Amino acid sequence: MKLVGFGCSFTYGSELQSPDIDPTDHWANTRYRNENVWLGQLAKRLNCEYDNLAEPANSNMAIAQQVANYFLHTRDPHEHIVICVAWTERTRFSWYNESWTHNGFVKDEWNSSCREWVIKSTSNSHDMWTNNAKLMVNSICKAHGVPILQFNALGRHSVSKYDNYFINGLTMNSTLKRAAQEDNRLNLFASGGHPNEAGHEYFTFRLHDFAKERII
How does pLDDT run across 167-200, given as a tens digit for each residue? Predict the structure, then answer.
């Protein structure tokens, strides 16, 4: 069995940095990051392989397209996989031109008309894009008979239609913040606001039981 993960920086593993590797050597850190993010930790608990296809600043519409492209171009139909999606903030937006560009990376040097287009083109359609993205991913997985494990990493958007959703009504971010508030001995976040190794471990401990009972 293989877990195939999609999401934003919370699944990519941003700020997970091995102390034995030069912080500027991003590629050398890839294995450490993938092993310590929730997806890698869950795969270890389930004794299975994993493939982390998340991107920092990813949007929900991009996640849906990435899942579709995985089924079209990458998936081995004879391989037993579980699609794992950690949905992100619904206000994020992406566009594609040979590779994905996410509006979280729009820089100040971009001209004002571009920034204005990004803001106006997404301001009234956040829920629509997110709901369509979820419908698309769940329909694809159902059509192919592939189980899906999903939850909100960021953003409290609707999840009521899906019984394969973990911590309905909460997010990975809010769950970790609540745990840290209830026990001030817990240090679950890195300096930039992403979960640290302990944060991913804490969340995976809870996610594992759900996955074993409802998904696997």
Answer: 878 999 999 999 999 999 999 999 999 999 999 9
Assign domain 2-215 one CATH number from 3.40.640.10, 3.40.605.10, 3.30.1060.10, 3.40.50.1110.
3.40.50.1110
Task: Tell if the pTM clears 0.90, that is, is over it.
Answer: no
Query: Could you give the CA distance from residue 61 to residue 136 in angstroms, rounded to a whole number?
Result: 10
3 state DSSP class of 51: strand
CA–CA gap between residue 39 and residue 156 (Å, rounded): 21
Six-digit token string for 21: 């590797």
Question: DSSP letters along 66-89, please?
Answer: HHHHIIIII--TTS-EEEEEEE--
104 contacts: CB under 8 Å, gap ≥ 6: 56, 57, 92
